[in-house]
Write a structure and sequence with these properties.
By secondary structure, this protein is an alpha/beta fold. It contains 5 helices and 9 strands.
Length: 185
């Protein structure tokens, strides 16, 4: 997916997110991907996506719902949640996206220090969320996981993995974005 073919990114916050945080997220994503970012806030009954056996929210169902309900918005789309996400093969995930698709989701639930027995650190938690959003949007733009340890596209199994990488694309991933001949979906 050539980034030149994408006209904008929309971040939709589902649930309660601080407006200043949302503006910071939009600004950082815009800066990294060099695309305009629109912000929207919506409400959603998340009980439809709750798996009582796992006590978590089904990321596959959420991603599908967001894609179907909001897929008419131009450009790329990332939906933000503050719930514990899972997919059947993993204990938890931070986000998910359709590779070369339109839609991604991300959650700040497991990005907060309190889940790791650490003192709250709002700046670190914001940084993690920014990285996760850029990472998932990278997938929608056709990027796969990168082996560069500092690239935002490196896979993150643990929160420490997120902390160790930058919020930017490495030169190789950036080059892939700019050179891909595909058109947007």
């Amino acid at each position: 997916m050539a980034i030149d073919n994408v006209y904008n990114i929309t971040i939709i916050a589902f649930g309660s997110f601080d407006r200043q945080l949302l503006q910071l997220l939009a600004s950082e994503v815009e800066k990294e991907l060099n695309l305009p970012v629109d912000l929207k806030e919506r409400h959603l009954d998340l009980s439809l996506f709750y798996n009582i056996d796992r006590r978590q929210y089904d990321a596959n169902l959420l991603l599908q719902f967001v894609n179907e309900e909001y897929g008419n918005i131009p450009g790329k789309l990332v939906a933000l949640f503050n719930v514990d996400l899972f997919i059947p093969i993993l204990t938890f995930i931070y986000g998910q996206a359709y590779l070369n698709g339109k839609t991604a989701i991300a959650s700040n639930y497991r990005l907060e220090n309190k889940y790791y027995g650490l003192k709250p650190d709002k700046e670190l938690e914001k940084s993690r969320l920014i990285k996760e959003i850029i990472h998932e949007l990278g997938h929608t733009l056709g990027l796969v996981h990168c082996y560069n340890p500092t690239c935002v596209m490196r896979s993150s199994t643990y929160v420490e993995d997120i902390d160790q990488k930058n919020q930017s694309l490495c030169k190789k991933c950036n080059s892939k974005l700019k050179s891909s001949p595909q058109d947007e979906d």
